[in-house]
Amino acid sequence: MYISRYHFENDMISLSLDSKSGELLELINKVTGDNLIKSHEYSCPPPFCLCLEDGATVTAPRRKDCMADTSLAADIVCVEHDGVKLIQVTYDRLIDSIGRKYDETLSYTIKLTNGSSVLEMDMSLENNILPLSSVLYPYIAGIWLGESYDDDVLVYPMHGGIKMDCPIRSMSAPPNRINWRWQEYRYVYNLTGLGLWADGNGYYNLDNKYSGPLSMAYLDMYDENGGIYLGHPDEPDHTISLLAQTKGEVCAGMNLAVRHTITETMPQLFFRGQIMLHKGDWHIAADHHRALSHSGKRSCPKWFDESSGLAAHYDFKYQNGGVVHRFTDIPRLVDDALSVGLDHLLISGWHKDGFDNGFPQYYCDEEVGTFDELSEGLKYAKEHGVKVSFYINSRLANTKYEANKELIEKGCIRRKDGSLYIEQYGDETITFATMCAASKDWQTHLKGAFEYVKKAGADGIYFDQIGMAPPLLCYSKEHDHRIDEWIAGCRRLIENARNIGLNVIIEGCSDLYGDMVGGQLISTFAYIDVAFPELYRYTYPDQTLVDMVYPKHNLAMRPVFVANKSKQMIDTAILTGLYIWAYDLEYDNTFFRDPKTLEYLCGALNIRKSFQKLEGEKRFVDTNGIVEIDGARATLFEYDYGLVLFASDCDKVTVSGRYSCINAKRIIDKNVLTDGAIHSSVNYDNTVIEMPKTKLGMFVLEKYDE
């Protein structure tokens, strides 16, 4: 009997493969009855795609190719044992998209376990002769959830997290942008979305490298009834990225994949990934990924856990040479920070030739002050309970300095052709060599910078770019490392700072670094329309994210539409437990020129301090446990003695009856802005808290006495 496709299933998932080509044709969530594959990708059928250096691809072969040359057909075998189905698909020969054939063995396996909605997927390439640039596996194409894609939501871990409603439509929407200039910096901001452009094949792509800008190795797409998780189950030993792409409504469907970067030809290559179908809540995907994760609870000094936030001063010496502050100003800046409720200073532009110019000359600039003056300023800060961190860039060396020539030659990133990797920021006359994180010369140089600021009395460093800029391949023949050893090099840089007692805040966000550092700066102002820090905070509640907040009025550094979202950003920081970064730039970005927003920030910091004073561990659970919100936003934290509810612009919040241990009659603490009468009651075993006209509030709910 002719069999066109093979079906494999357990009690939760059903899938089918083309009997000749091994192409994945169906993926059915048996709980909902939904086949997620709504559109077949003829040019690039799943579940794998090998991308060649010349732009051609190798995928599951077309059925007509298998009929014309039987050596191309897949051998499909399913072995079942103790409730586990192991589906193995093997090709002895491969054919690419322009008809070239290769005597190479590819084998992929799908593990399907009874009672599980997870597909564990592995692939190997033997006798590898293909000129590969990357491999997509697992790869699923042409999907959406349920009857309509209108209600689909994509959460994607760029810079801690973004959230896109109806990604098929929103990813392909025309860019909606403005230009903004601050000093010599020229910026382009997206008012909505991410401003994606179609590639040569008509796809709009999210394809971020891990790590960063990709902060975690999973993504999730869901609607009210069902969802799909795709991710890498452990820490990869090579560079990967996550691909989410669509052609928009002209050919509806989403393609999702783990992309593995290939740096060299090897006799055998291995690739892994997972797909999980679930009930339709991204928290399920986050719980699943956390259980697989290599990343744990962060390690940092006690003072950072107890700190309310930092005041950032990038105005000691600007890129253009302008000096606003000197080291003798530090006592005043300490007093200013304390008046707001901040107990941590970040000093940038302190070194020779200033910010975004003098890198990597990390010693005191004579126009800013002497080492002794710096030490005296830090002594004042210490006496008044204020910690001080210093800006250090993790990767840039200005090419204009003769003194840097040897360091650049020895320690920079080399492209495949041996040329230097060059970057540019702000002033177009200034260029920077990108230094290799795995280079011993660069590690030694930055270790010297750490020791210098530590000797002055520093408590920490802000390590710019290390988790924000993408990992680079380094082909230097002088360096003793693999081509793709960027991540390991970054870890060693962080470890060098920690070993001498410095707290580390990094730019960017990554679970590859998150348990090593005090905080990770996510900078949601740059993508505020889709920012969703809840994704990382919920997945790794034991790690701390840092975010910038801004005044509403008299803000020059950022555009007006960011200033107009000042309250939203402050509220998000409080509701999700972010460490607050507030700039204090005398003429360009300071709350002191916006008294009304300053008052709101001070109130928000008081709420944060009340939260910090609660004894015991506190775990962010987001909206899990919130039944209904009458108003804008609310989140929950679990802690040793009950729950903490945060609410923004709410009149009433109902907390799930699953927290039956909570005493609805006793709110043991409240801290609200624009206080109103607070009432609590029990409604169908749920706890109902009424808080009329509360702009921002914290409510601590105590457990019943046993």
Description:
With 706 residues, this protein is α+β, with helices and mostly antiparallel strands. Helix content is 18%, strand content 37%. It contains 13 helices and 41 strands. The strands form eight sheets. Strands 7-8-11-12-23-20-19-14-15 form a nine-stranded antiparallel β-sheet. Helix 8 runs parallel beside helix 9 and helix 12 packs parallel to helix 13. It is globular, with a radius of gyration of 27 Å. The chain starts with a strand and ends with a strand. The model has no long low-confidence stretch (mean pLDDT 94).
Structural descriptors:
alpha+beta, 706 residues, 9-stranded antiparallel sheet, TIM Barrel, 13 helices, single chain, 3 domains, Beta-galactosidase, Chain A, domain 5, globular
Biggest β-sheet strands, sense, barrel = 9 strands, antiparallel
Helix content: 10-25%
> What's the quaternary structure here?
single chain
Number of domains: 3
Strand order of the largest sheet: 7-8-11-12-23-20-19-14-15
CATH topology assignment of the largest domain: TIM Barrel
CATH superfamily of the largest domain: Glycosidases
Structural class: alpha+beta
How many helices in DSSP terms?
A: 13
N-to-C terminal Cα separation, in Å?
68 Å
Portion in beta strands: 35-45%
Task: Provide a quick synopsis of the model.
This protein is an alpha+beta fold and 706 residues long. Helix 8 runs parallel beside helix 9.
Secondary-structure map:
Elements: E1 5-9, E2 13-18, E3 24-29, E4 34-35, E5 49-52, E6 57-59, H1 63-68, E7 75-81, E8 84-91, E9 94-95, E10 101-102, E11 105-113, E12 118-126, E13 132-143, E14 153-156, E15 162-165, H2 167-170, E16 176-182, E17 185-192, E18 204-210, E19 218-222, E20 227-231, E21 240-246, E22 254-261, E23 268-278, H3 282-292, H4 302-306, E24 309-313, H5 330-340, E25 344-347, H6 371-383, E26 387-393, E27 396-398, H7 405-411, E28 422-423, E29 432-434, H8 440-456, E30 460-467, H9 486-499, E31 503-508, E32 519-521, H10 534-539, E33 545-549, H11 560-563, H12 566-576, E34 579-585, E35 589-590, H13 595-613, E36 618-622, E37 626-639, E38 642-655, E39 662-673, E40 679-683, E41 686-703
Parallel strand pairs: 24-25, 24-34, 25-26, 26-30, 30-31, 31-32, 32-33, 33-34
Antiparallel strand pairs: 1-2, 2-3, 3-4, 5-6, 5-13, 7-8, 8-11, 9-10, 11-12, 12-23, 13-22, 14-15, 14-19, 16-17, 18-21, 19-20, 20-23, 21-22, 27-29, 28-29, 34-35, 36-37, 37-38, 38-41, 39-41, 40-41
Helix pairs in contact: 8-9, 12-13
